[in-house]
Write a structure and sequence with these properties.
- By secondary structure, this protein is mostly helical.
- Keywords: Membrane, Transmembrane, Transmembrane helix.
Amino acid sequence: MANFQLSMLCLAITLVIYFLNKRLY
């Protein structure tokens, strides 16, 4: 279960970074 939560957390961080990059450029 912890592994699933960790993967979801990584996915959320990746999406946040992606949207921030789209906003900056």
